[in-house]
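Researcher: Here's the sequence for the chain we discussed earlier.
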Amino acid sequence: MRQEGLDPETERPTHEWLSAHGFRGLIDALREYHGRTFGEFWANDLNLNERDDGYDWGTTHDPTIELLEAYLESCSERGDLSESSTDTLRYRLAHYVRAYRIINETGDLLTPVARDSDVPAYEATDAAWAAFDALDDDLAPRTMRRIHEAVDSWYAHLVRRKRTAVNPVAGLGDEYRWRRRTDTTGDARANPALNAPTSKHSLTPPRHRPTASSSWHCCGACAQVR
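Model: Thanks. This is the structure I predict for it:
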């Protein structure tokens, strides 16, 4: 690593770097015989820093950041996702995280959906949907569909790993029908490229935020009678 200008004590090698330099067997052995990823081995066994603190997730809530990064690591090592695809996935997730923080005034995305949370499931769902309402005001349907796919997969991963009890964005695509809107109306709104990370985003808050007493969302059947 030093020959390539990398610091082995502070720069964790990527999945692609390990594979290209003959360490794919190490990755497979860690997963098969020890039930852990290389990132977990890097942090827990070697006691090295595994997270790139330079990326701006739009939140300072460490548990949220840690589970976002752990999900990306799982996609990279278990799902064999390329580095560029991982960067794109990170960017889409960050769009949602920033919107959630702005709309709900908190960067803690975990407490509302935690297994021992006192927050009712419908309130956790309302908070997540409010973030998508805000994003949907600014972004094109195709972009929204891709962001939702990324966020839905992240929450589903957390549920599978028993980190959370509920996926608050499950089925959200049926409400917005982004795929149908893309096919029938095209992408008329701004559609920023989602293949490179950035740290600055504009977000227009929605005109209405759902509350416990007034929260509701139109189902797909409504549009059929318009």
